[in-house]
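User: Some background: our group keeps a shared notebook of sequences we're curious about, and every so often someone picks one and asks for a predicted structure to add to the entry. Today it's my turn. The entry only has the sequence so far, pasted here. Could you supply the structure so I can complete it?
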Amino acid sequence: MRSIDERAIKAHADLRFRSEYDYALFEYYRSAKVIAFLERAGVAVRGRVLDAGCGGGGMPLSLAEEADLVVGIDPAERFQEAGVRLGRERTLRNLTFALADGMYLPFRNGTFDLVLSHAVIEHVADAPLYLRECARVLAPSGHIYLSTAPYLSFAGAHLPRLRVPLPLHLMVGRPAAFATFQFLARRAPWTLKEPANENSFIKAARRGETKHDDLLEKVRVTRLRRQIADAGLHIVREELHATATVRRMPAPIARWLRDNSLTQDMLISNIEYVLQRRH
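Assistant: Of course. Here's the predicted structure to add to the notebook entry:
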């Protein structure tokens, strides 16, 4: 079983926003948690693996230490300055990166034994098509790992946080909250909790750029389950990770809040799935 080095994850988390290379290193160490989740579900990282939205390429680097062949794709060439460099440094010959769109995967049917989608689906323009493509390139006995977060939660909103902890996106709606954070990043960055080097709104403001909302799929738990089924997939394992506030509550109340369709989208910080094709 892959060991999870919490100290290394924390150390690289503190440095991850310095460069794409540093972020890829953070993803490399954090990916041990993904591999551990798969192992708990009885899924081995082996054979041919696709990371269908690899970003800088840290996770494919980690997967390549386990599998026969790993391909990481992304619509932006972020991996060139990070994953490619790290792969060369570690002389990994079973790791390949390609510029590709997850909604139009350039691979034949049934190519991969394992497909990973880690915090990707919320950023694609057509989530049902993306899921169908992931299912199409999956071998009949293969598995898909999917993680994301409901867009109404703090984690899934992909928005900064105020120093005064108000859920602005729930109070005024996402478009107004997004515009407010753009204004604050330009005029009053001290009101935002994240330091400037970790806040994409502040970075964009300092460069004189207008930040565009890249949260394209508004993930909700019940809708995602339906999209999974419509893509011809079934759920092998589902874990709904509630926020720390919910976890501190008495267990029966915490379970009710986590599982209730009226509250779960606001109180779940992460969702993890193992999926397979329906036969």
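Suggested note for the entry: The two ends are 30 Å apart (CA to CA). The chain has 13 helices and seven strands.
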